[in-house]
Design brief:
Blueprint lengths: L2 H21 L2 H6 L2 H4 L21 E5 L2 E4 L4 E4 L14 H13 L10 H12 L3 E5 L2 H16 L3 E5 L12 E4 L2 E4 L14 E4 L4 H8 L4 E6 L15 H11 L3 E5 L10 H5 L6 E4 L10 E5 L1 H13 L16 H14 L2 H24 L5 E5 L2 E5 L8 H7 L2 H13 L2 E2 L6 E3 L6 H18 L7
Parallel strand pairs: 3-15, 5-8, 5-9, 9-10, 10-11
Antiparallel strand pairs: 1-2, 2-3, 4-12, 6-7, 11-12, 13-14, 14-16
The protein binds pyridoxal-5'-phosphate.
Cofactor: pyridoxal 5'-phosphate
InterPro entries: Aminotrans_3, PyrdxlP-dep_Trfase, PyrdxlP-dep_Trfase_major, PyrdxlP-dep_Trfase_small
Family: Belongs to the class-III pyridoxal-phosphate-dependent aminotransferase family.
Length: about 450
């Protein structure tokens, strides 16, 4: 079916499905009121209004993969807080750690007795020898970038077009007509972010060599698979080239594993034997509790010691926040690393992701659509193009907000919550085989409605 026809059909579907959503949720509708709630826009984070639903779901309970909204609707969650709850809502060992941490003190600005165990677990699991904590992946990226600049003495940063690394000013840029510019819609941004950040297309080895040639880039910050602009896999050999060229240019390689931790135990880096100088991870690493980690090589750690000594080691370094490294974070990290983020959990996630990938591909073929399913371990995304996209320009050309919204709303009305803004499915160890099958059936039904083989709900 032509894209224009599909989009017209998607618009009609959105209208019908929005009605169904509304009819089932009088309480959620009533809860969304700026005046009564006291929140700006009626929500604790303004972007909670950006979902394709007419008003936000208000979640009463979340456990495993099941959400119950304020109106009592039960939903299978494959959005999982966009990865924050990748291991399921409230994994039992983390709930136990939360309870115990509550009894033993949540934050003291000192290392807790869990600290040494957690440090060793991070080294074992992710390979790099020295670690620090933050509260969010955004924080961890900011801190790692700062360290990269400190140890290289260089100011510039290189990112890939279409990247998202959190609320990190230096990275909020776009590549437009070959020029790096501040991203549109940034609030209150007064600096020209293109002055110190270079953005190039992912998978473009020539552009990479060119950008690194002046030996003035402190670090390349990259997701190993780009997950925030479609889902863009690295071309064969791209990571080898990236590592080789960065080493040659004296540029550090900072890998952001916040989403690609879905790949398998130890993240994409461990599974694919990458050799970054710095790694960042956040979101699910503490089982849903706000904690992030960033790791560095021995060489960076050694240089940092020297710099800190020269500066006498005191004062504001620009790294760290009061609640980072807290007893609460350490307790939850320990529980997650020891008991939640395990080989067994990943095996279960992969097995269901295999089923969903095969089922989605069959449904797409059955509907005669030329779409692909991109995958990084437990993370799958439906991309509206016949071939995997190679960079952000191709991903943007393939994307359709309208079709995405239609799929999202229709799936939600059938009881499955996809990630908004892109059709991402994240498979948690709490998802059962039956639920995975139900998700595939729902997807197939929705595609049939989209191509008008079946009437809408
Ligand atoms: C790859 C990546 N890194 C970092 C972040 C920032 O995470 P947080 O919002 O938890 O700081 C995100 C958020 O989506 C992300 O996708």
């Amino acid at each position: 079916m032509e894209r224009a026809n599909l989009e017209a059909r998607a618009r009609a579907l959105i209208e019908a499905e929005a009605e169904v959503f509304r009819a089932r949720r009088p309480r959620c509708a009533a809860a969304h009121d700026e005046e009564a709630s006291g929140f700006f826009d009626g929500v604790p984070q303004h972007w909670m209004l950006d979902w394709p639903t007419p008003f936000p779901l208000v979640v009463d309970q979340a456990s495993g993969v099941e959400l119950v909204d304020l109106d009592g609707n039960r939903i299978v969650d494959v959005c999982l807080g966009d990865t924050g709850a990748m291991f399921g809502h409230g994994p039992a060992p983390v709930l136990e750690a939360l309870k115990n941490a509550g009894m033993r003190g949540l934050t003291t600005m000192l290392p807790s007795s869990d600290a040494q165990v957690v440090g060793r677990l991070l080294v074992e699991c992710f390979g790099l020898p020295r670690w620090q904590l933050g509260a969010t992946a955004s924080d961890a990226n900011r801190f790692a970038i700062r360290v990269a600049r400190a140890v290289t003495g260089r100011a510039k940063l290189l990112v890939f077009d279409g990247c998202y690394h959190g609320a990190v000013d230096d990275t909020l840029v776009d590549l437009v007509d070959g020029k790096t510019i501040s991203r549109r819609n940034l609030l209150g941004q007064v600096r020209d972010l293109g002055e110190l950040t270079v953005s190039i297309p992912f998978n473009d080895e020539a552009a990479l060599a060119d950008a690194l040639a002046a030996n003035d880039i402190a670090c390349v910050l990259a997701e190993p698979v780009m997950t925030n602009c479609g889902m863009i896999p690295p071309a064969p050999g791209f990571h080898d080239t990236l590592r080789h060229l960065t080493r040659e240019a004296g540029t550090l390689l900072l890998i952001d594993e916040t989403h690609t931790i879905s790949t398998g135990l130890g993240g994409y880096t461990k599974v694919h034997s990458l050799e970054p100088d710095l790694i960042v991870m956040g979101k699910p690493i503490g089982g849903g509790v706000p904690v992030s980690v960033w790791g560095m090589t021995q060489a960076i750690s050694d240089k940092l010691h020297v710099i800190r000594r020269e500066q006498s080691g005191h004062g504001h370094s620009g790294i760290g926040t009061t609640l980072s490294g807290s007893a609460l974070q350490l307790a939850c990290l320990r529980a997650c690393l020891e008991h939640v983020m395990t080989e067994e959990a990943y095996a279960k996630m992969q097995a269901n992701a295999d089923r969903i990938e095969a089922g989605f591909k069959a449904a797409i073929a059955g509907a005669g659509l030329d779409w692909t399913v991109s995958r990084v371990g437990a993370r799958l995304e439906v991309v509206f193009s016949a071939l995997p996209v190679k960079n952000a320009a191709e991903a943007r050309a393939a994307a359709s907000d309208t079709i995405e919204a239609a799929l999202h709303l229709s799936m939600l009305n059938l009881g499955y919550l996809l990630t908004p803004f892109h059709n991402m499915v994240l498979v948690s160890p709490a998802l059962s085989e039956k639920q995975a099958g139900g998700l595939v059936n729902a997807f197939s039904t929705v595609l049939e409605r989209l191509i008008e083989r079946r009437a809408a709900a």
